[in-house]
Amino acid sequence: MTGWLWNLLNIGVSLVGYYLASFLIDNKAYGRKWMMIVGFLGDFLCFVIPAFNYHYYSTVGVHKFQAMYFISSFFNQFGPNCVSFIVAAEVYPTSVRATAHGFSAAWGKLGALVAAVMYNYITIEQRFYVVPWFGLAGALITFVWLPDTTGLDLKEQERRWAYIRQGREEDYHGVAIHPQHLSLWERMRGVGKHYDPQADYDQKVAEMRGEWEVAQARKAEEKAGGDVYDDDEFSDDVSSYFQRTGTPSLKGNVAPSLRESEKIAY
Q1: Which DSSP string corresponds to 49-99?
Q2: What pLDDT digit, counting tens, does each position of 207-264 carry?
């Protein structure tokens, strides 16, 4: 019963971490990436401290040992256990998202399997010599290679992937390559040098014009066939603007000036 009650307390601490994560995971000042890094580092510290003085913490300082274990449960939830599932659903393009998410989860399960097997061949004390370094490695890998998707619309990420698949990565200028959303590795590669809000705005207007032209062509075809076409996708202001400004070439990303474009109910 005593062990069961302590386990219940540990679960309660974990839940606190999980619910706190739900409040801060969309906070742009903290968000997904820093939550992941802080969680990994918290787990690293909670396991590396008793690793080098195990006999003290397992006998005289057992209450301190227990407290560190509870704190590690908090940081596990307020970090990698929450963020990894969310980020894996955001960083991949739609066409492969389900497969890539499953692939990522499979690696996580492989790690759990390796630990379960390895623990049968090493002592409890030896476990504390091995385990902490995975937390440190997770923090470093996250810092260097994980992009920060906090506050970034999935549709905007998909726009970037569309340019990449077309071999035109340098032509994308949107917020998905703003430095705050890029990993350290991407910033070192100069991915963010093409970020240009004005050019991105003009591209969006050009893309919207293309969608409007397709909708107008479909509307004309259906009217010619005697069908009733209910066009509620574009407002009257948008349709009026595109009719008034003509049809620029989409291949060159030609678009109206920003001052004119501000008239659009976009």
Answers
A1: HHHTTHHHHTTTTHHHHHHHHHHHHHHHHTTHHHHHHHHHTTSS-GGGHHH
A2: 888 888 888 888 877 777 666 555 557 777 777 888 887 654 443 443 333 334 344 4
